[in-house]
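Hi support team,

I'm filing this because I wasn't sure whether my run with cytidine-5'-monophosphate finished correctly. The job status page said complete, but I'd like someone to confirm that the output block is well-formed before I use it downstream. Pasting the exact inputs I used:
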Amino acid sequence: GDVAVLVPAAGRGERLGPGLPKALRELAGSPLLVHAVRRLAQADCVGHVVVAVPAGAVDSVSALLTPVLAGTGVGLGLVVGGAERQQSVALALAAVPGGYPIILVHDAARAFAPPELVDRVAAAVRAGSDAVIPVLPVVDTIKQVDPDGAVTGTVDRSVLRAVQTPQGFRRTVLAAAHAVDTDGGATDDAGLVERLGGRVTTVPGAESALKITRPFDLQVAALLVDP
Ligand code: C5P
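And here is everything the job wrote out:
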């Protein structure tokens, strides 16, 4: 495949409760990162994966992921992540070899994103989009509140979308966005492209690409583990 995937996995995952960094928490006997990379490697488009890991975890993550990718033809790079997600992505991007014109960025926390979603995002970039994000409709009613929690307004949810990963980019576009913007504040990479005035398009997301953030999410994700 001509697609490289950056996997920011260097966060502490404090909202999941005390313990290992989130990407290394286990579900059904394997760390979330292993579930995530296994699915990425199942996507036809993927040729290389670069994971940003917590400081001190390069050797242990290498030992975890090398057997996952053995025989798949997918290359692996590992970098130590930065203080903020955005920096972890920039460090991983700098470690991608030549020959990958399409870059996807995928949170380890979305460990059960299906391979078809990965291929769908990459195909939309290949078809000409600079930046592509998978989205779902918002099912809840969304309200604005004041600091006391009193409601000040109801938002029109028909124009809202919940955004997932993998997000896909032409490599030059992602590199330019990260070069201009290094303050670390963005919560997703498409946001950096938007700030530059770039056009970001959408494809349908997948419910199984949920972000594992809180303990309840782990219980849901347990239903998605391969038998
Ligand atoms: O904290 P949050 O859930 O938004 O993190 C999203 C993803 O970014 C996670 O996979 C996490 O491991 C990663 N991350 C990172 N480097 C940081 C902070 C978060 O790679 N400094």
